[in-house]
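Ligand: zinc ion. Inputs:
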Amino acid sequence: MASRANHRVLLGCALLCAAALPCADSIAGGTADSAPQTAAATAGFPIASAARLAGDGKQTRFILDLDQTIPFRAFVLADPYRVVVDLPQVNFALPSGVGAGRGLVKAFRYGLVMPGGSRIVFDLTGPAKIASSNVLAAANGQPARLVLELEEVDRTAFAQALAPESRPELRPAIADAAPAAASEPRAQEPAAPTDPRPVVVIDPGHGGIDNGTQSSGEAEKNLVLAFGLALRDRLEKSGKYRVVMTRDDDTFIPLNDRVKLARSLNAALFVSIHADALPRAEGDAQGATIYTLSDKASDAEAERLAEAENRADAIAGFNLTEEPTEVADILIDLAQRETRTFSNRFAHLLMGEMKSTVRMHKHPLKSAGFRVLKAPDVPSVLVELGYVSNKGDLDHLVSESWRAKTVASMGQAIDTFLAKRLANAGPAR
Ligand SMILES: [Zn+2]
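Predicted complex:
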């Protein structure tokens, strides 16, 4: 069973995310899957053609129109309050912008959570129960429909309803299979024991049901995937490294699985790629920022960002409270000091290369408690390429020539960093 969460960090984030609503809104608002999907990728799957919410803060109904009946499983999760509906893979042909809340639902989102499995996640305004849930066959001119009835309950009743659902052994296959199926094929990349080259892991953030930040119809998950693939191509061309992607398509990968992949490959470097957005109320910000791990955030913005990024698993509807911790308490481990030194060295090298070609944030080197940077033995940085909330940055992020320039400077920094490391450590790291 994959161990995915530093649940203490995440519970903290769950509490704090109420204060960071603009980021939640940016994630939940436009849930239409804007990833370019080929016809082959979506053909043959059941189609969801419309979704709507009705009701009020006492009772709220969700209706999803389908072209056929499908099996499903609905359950509630706590911290934060959510309802999750697991489905076989569905082609969500919904108008963009669907996902706004009503009644007991603050917002909802939908998308792939694993190959072959789709999910709808409802963020609730407070504790609620699933009063009924049905898939109805087409009848009387109405299409097949998934209908979910939610009712307000108090915290005690919610906790009682939660108890059996929180026990993984009582959950049917699809809910339980999600994390394992999403991670295991990737965690077992083709073994290359004879390949002596250092492994570089490139980690495009978000994916699948988790869009990341969004602006002007551009989802972070797509921007960072395109960037990550370009960086991979640049590094592979040099022939010096074995390059592994945590994801190379629009699939959700839990945060801890990204860390585990880097560790299992004994990676020489882990580079997570993101694009930030500043809540409107906080004004404007621009430029790229390079983050390393620290247990105390370097400033309030770094703290806000780490909280937002660390929410990925909650956004995808994973039950964080049941996750055992693995990489959780090692933050201050002495063994990690050397890794941190290397991470910081790479961050400085990267800034040195990037600042000559790329617009940088006014404080371009920061640190905070990003879960994805917590491998104790793999130098790791997280690069926020820019702000999708800033017009100029967004123009850059979607520009081929900007991407090529930025990839080139990152590639140069990686070359310099690993040349030094290899010279110090000998050829077989
Ligand atoms: Zn991100």
